[in-house]
Amino acid sequence: MCSRFCIDQEMWRELKELFGDLDRMFSGWKWNRSGQDIRPTNQSLVITAGEDNRLAPALQRWGLPDSYHKSTIINARAETALEKRMFRDSVASRRLAVPAARFYEWDREKQKVAFYRKGRPALYMAGFYSPGEEGWNFCILTTEANSSMGGVHDRMPLVIEREQVRDWILDGDRTAEFLTGRPPQLDQERDYEQLSLFW
Fold it and tell me: Which pLDDT belongs to residue 132?
């Protein structure tokens, strides 16, 4: 599961190297450059398919509206995403990557634990998007946790390598392969400030 992640200035700089002047492109989007937590229903920068088979940055809202259950779906299991009627068309044709400096989970003592990749400004979480009432909404795919989660949680985001982002988004023939892939090992750091599990 992933219910909170963080963006920061170092991550932003890496994305500017890939896409150019993001500050101009998204001048109306205000966020804390020293580090901002992204929670469900917040907007965040994502990477999608653009024109001419290129990758493009976009702002989307986190969470798919679920009117039946009157809730917001923020994660989907990668193992079954192509089987679920609610997800399969989007996973097949509207894939994206969600860049983050780190994401968070909470251990049994409700301590906040940050997961990141040491020496890398960003990690990339595989996801997909669907139309919402006010634009596009995204969902993060999760998979079985690897050993780097250290027993904190039995699920984790489907993290992919930066070099795999293009193929995940643009190469539909490899979708099933990515969905069964194993994320890289991550580093973790505990935050001993007591924080709420809830949004």
Answer: 84
